[in-house]
Design brief:
By secondary structure, the protein is α+β, with helices and mostly antiparallel strands. Helices cover 29% and strands 26% of the residues. The protein has eleven helices and 17 strands. Helix 2 packs antiparallel against helix 3 (68-83). The longest helix is centred in the first third of the chain and has 21 residues, at 131-151. The relative contact order is 0.15. The chain binds D-tryptophan, calcium ion (CA) and zinc ion (2 copies). Calcium ion (CA) binds at residues 39-40, 42, 298, 301-302.
Length: 435
């Protein structure tokens, strides 16, 4: 509420504001974590795409299995990795009478009994250069691997990157890798992250709905960007994560869409064109370097790095590092009824922690108008922020620590926001709970 402008403020609210204005909760710094991933430069990722495009152009217009363009693609990626200090291996296989190659790159160090993998297929279809499908995933994984080298990252877990052959023939390369991995080696895989089409021109932001920890790692990253995500539904077994999932390895990944059509609701939240395919050049000759959405490629490349950094830091174990988030905007009525935004907490055991972290992002002018509460699944309210007639600053972007140890962890938790003074409006942008 702005004191300079006389505004209606109920007497009760004035009394509450006066009484509690000094009781605003302390804003806690986010807990110290493993170093955050660096930004992945979009220009670097696009430079790899330019190289892959040149390779296709010089080799009959494609980078398909069994064609010269595929092996040239492998040689390009491998040379970058060798120069960056990786231990690279070419795994050969035969499909359709032609030799295929998987490129495997191990980053020296880390616990050999806990291996985190990230991969993408490097082959295209025969009809085109395959820049979105799947130069985009291959370039993002390559640039993330190079960022690991630049940072001289020394994660708790061992990092392994992979570029698969003959995915377009039916996940042939990744199946060959998993089937030829000794069961003792397979058991060491703590997770496999897959990136197949992450720069679609009419992009959607889809997260694979498989391992919950991997899924939440991606979802909380995009929540931090205030980018809503959806669960990937175009086809569970339709990329290289499928053989790993069948072998019991935790999997996850990102996808920006192929031939399915973007809905009006999706265009509303992501932009782009409703009624049009996410990628109109899917498996076509027009899948060239012009067939990329830079914003989607940049965001997804950064999400790849975030997941690699986060999930390879052995210290972030599920009981303390699981994030439940909601990035759907909720308008807060001016001087009106309270509104809520929910997160469904699952997979926990017992009660919530005594140091439950609630990170909120509420865009609202004159934040003194707002009262913010956390509602536990049983309805118990925990006051995060009181109103204050003197707090004229905008936006509530803060992390609160709540002693929720009396509450059952699993269930629907709600962020409740009420505007108790006329004028100045806003909305819940996103929020998350970290258990
Ligand atoms: N099979 C991939 C593209 C693809 C289609 N649906 C999905 C779902 C999840 C990941 C990838 C895909 C290809 O054509 O390479
Ligand atoms: Ca970036
Ligand atoms: Zn494809
Ligand atoms: Zn693909």
């Amino acid at each position: 509420m702005r004191p300079a402008r006389l505004r209606s403020l109920s007497a009760a609210a004035v009394a509450v504001a006066a009484l509690l204005a000094t009781a605003a909760p302390a804003v806690q710094a986010a807990p110290a974590r493993a170093a955050a991933a660096p930004d992945i430069p979009l220009a670097n990722v696009k430079a790899h795409l330019t190289q892959l495009q040149s390779i296709a152009t010089a080799n009959g217009g494609n980078r398909a299995h069994g064609r010269t363009g595929y092996k040239a693609s492998v040689d390009y990626v491998r040379a970058k990795l060798d120069a960056a200090g990786y231990t690279t291996t070419l795994q050969q296989f035969t499909s359709g009478g032609a030799t295929g190659y998987n490129l495997i790159a191990d980053w020296p160090g880390g616990d050999p009994n806990q291996v985190l993998m990230a991969g993408s297929h490097l082959d295209s279809v025969t009809s085109g250069a395959g820049i979105n499908d799947n130069g985009s995933g291959s370039a993002a994984v390559l640039e993330t691997a190079l960022a690991v080298s630049r940072a001289q990252l020394a994660p708790d877990k061992h990092l392994r990157f992979a570029w698969w052959g003959a995915e377009e023939l039916g996940l042939v390369g990744s199946k060959y890798y998993v089937n030829n991995l000794a069961s003792t080696e397979r058991a060491k895989l703590s997770g496999y992250l897959n990136f197949d089409m992450i720069g679609s021109p009419n992009a959607g932001y889809f997260v694979y709905d498989d391992d919950p920890v991997i899924e939440q790692t991606f979802k909380s990253y995009f929540a931090g960007l205030s980018v809503p995500t959806e669960i990937e539904t175009e086809g569970d077994g339709r990329s290289d994560h499928a053989p790993f999932k069948s072998a019991g390895v935790p999997v996850g990944g990102l996808f920006t869409g192929a031939s399915n059509t973007k809905s009006s609701a999706q265009a509303q939240k992501w932009g782009g064109t409703a009624g049009q395919a996410f990628d109109r050049c899917y498996h076509s000759s027009c899948d060239t370097t012009t067939n990329i959405n830079d914003t989607a490629l940049d965001r997804n490349s950064d999400a790849v790095a975030h997941a690699v950094w986060t999930l390879s830091a052995g210290t972030v174990t599920p009981p303390t590092g699981t994030v439940f988030s909601n990035a759907t905007d909720v308008a807060v009525p001016d001087n009106g009824a309270a509104v809520t935004s929910s997160v469904a907490v699952t997979g926990r055991t017992g009660n919530a922690p005594a140091t439950l972290k609630a990170a909120v992002d509420i865009k609202h002018t004159y934040r003194g108008d707002l009262v913010v509460d956390l509602l536990a699944p049983d309805g118990t309210a925990y006051r995060l922020k009181n109103s204050s007639s003197s707090d004229s600053a905008d936006n509530v972007i803060a992390t609160y620590t709540v002693n929720a140890s009396a509450e059952t962890a699993n269930g629907t938790w709600k962020l409740q926001v009420r505007d108790v003074a006329a004028q100045d409006t806003g909305y819940i942008d996103s929020w998350q709970l970290t258990f």
